[in-house]
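for the record, two folds in this file. i put them one after another cuz i was lazy. first one right below, seq on top, structure tokens after. the second one comes after a little note so u can tell where it starts
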Amino acid sequence: MVEWMNAGHPDEMAARRAFRSLLLNASTVTVSVAVVFIVAMDRLGDRLGMDTVAIGTAFVIYAAICTIALGNLHAHGHSRFGAANMVTTVRAAITATVGGLVLVSDQFGQASRAEALWLIGSIVAFALALDGVDGHLARRTRTATRFGARFDMEVDALLILFLSIAAFLLGKAGVWVLLIGLMRYAYGAAQSVLPRLRGELPPSMRRKLICVVQGAALCLMLFPFIVPPVSTMLAAWALAALAYSFARDVIFLLRASRDEHAS
């Protein structure tokens, strides 16, 4: 849409048709992933320890993610949804599955079977591996957009939140481990009341590396062989790294705002 809006005097009818085509393409992708999701739950639901309520909750989470994503397609500057966003949609389905498990499944927690935890951990590891694939695809196909970056980031944040809840329910760390998943949302809340934190942050390898670290640490805590005190140390390390990263970004934004006002 950005390209169409900046084209001088675009044909509005053509722009509408192009956007409808994009919306249809994106909707087809989300529905197709949902169908695969249904088949996977039929085959793996019992092994994962997902009851009917957990599966229903997972579908609600997936539907909510896709509805929000489709509602923001105006920020996507291409006529096709793209392979990168397809991969992110698959990751959204896996994230929804984890959400259904940790939020409402009676079988998740101290009573979880070792076999189920190995399977869940493997699926989450696959989702984390895909996190690097969608970005690579976007760059290689020259379809990187603000929409895709935000879609990817929000799926990451939600998965980290669910994994931090899982770590707490499994007794791998104290209630403080929830701070790992909540910090991103606390930062968003702070931005809504402090305009100085709404500035643009430059690309950062440190930020990407710490995101990988916390995801890997929380994923490891799903496996039965990672127990306290090792799991506690992993969680503390991940939280400390994340707090450091957010502190660096907040300081950067506050200084940038101060320099802007001074000039």
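(here's the note) second protein begins now
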Amino acid sequence: MNSPRTEGPGRRLTLDEYLQDFDRHFWNSGPEGFWKLERQQTFQEPGVESWEAFHQGHWDESLALIESQRGHYEAYFRRIAGSGFALHRVRCVEEPVSPYLQWELHLLRLKAEYGEDTRVLLGDGIGRYEDGRPLAEIIVLGSSVMYEIVYDDEGKLAGGIRFDDPGEVSRCRGAIQEMHRSGEPLADYFARRVAPLPPPVVGGEHV
């Protein structure tokens, strides 16, 4: 079993540096594609309209705002396909599903409808890779660039650590691919475990 943990020296990037660097390399991911490992169960996403509505307790509005993004994601994934690569994601899920994750899985389901290949990894499937320490959030772009994503104590994006060693990039990509193969397709998990859920509880109140 391969480990998806980053090793060796990496270069720490501020938030602005990370966003600029990521955008520069994303569209050149090539046939190896984009692979993301997402482990944390809650994040803060200020500025994202549907997340803001969810966070403020407006669940129906939040879902409507996700739905309103269909045109955007249709065009976005058409551009990605035209650029010769595909997006793959492993979404680790602890149950019971956190309020944030309930919101995010609705968004990921929409992305999956337009081409993102997401699989869900649960419980024991996650534990096989963790050896007592939670996994990091990792993005691999193609064959030459990888980032460990950095968040602040509130769960807001704060930057990244860039890794360039081809062997390290290949090893982590292979580990994420292994996790992906063992996961459950998002559509199946969503229908089975997310669709039946009542509106999430945020701050002690139903959204």
